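Protein modeling request. Please complete all fields; requests missing the sequence field cannot be processed.
Requester role: graduate student
Desired output: 3D structure, token encoding
Chains: 1
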Amino acid sequence: MVLTDFLYPGETIVFQSGKIESLNDNFFFYITDQRIILYRRRGVFFKKDRIIAERIEDIRTMQYGETGIFRKRGILRIETLSKKMDPIVGKVSDVKAIWQEMQKYLRKDPPTY
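Delivered output (113 residues):
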């Protein structure tokens, strides 16, 4: 199986990042027109997939930060309706690109007075 086997009918990938770390594992981060997906595949002969997916419309907040002095790392924290996801950590350029791309898809609520 490959990532396309996990997509909904008609769902398309609009963004792919480099490797990131989350849940003590390495993933590739994808944004589709409906969800964010963390995906990895391991194994030479016996393939094992791991996938984490959240609907974009369920994302409430995102926080981006950087840590480190010599080896800077980007950190992205995502909170959905039901939970706080484990932080997404990786190269500053990769994590910042995810954050910037996600800004296009997050729901913009008009201010209430």
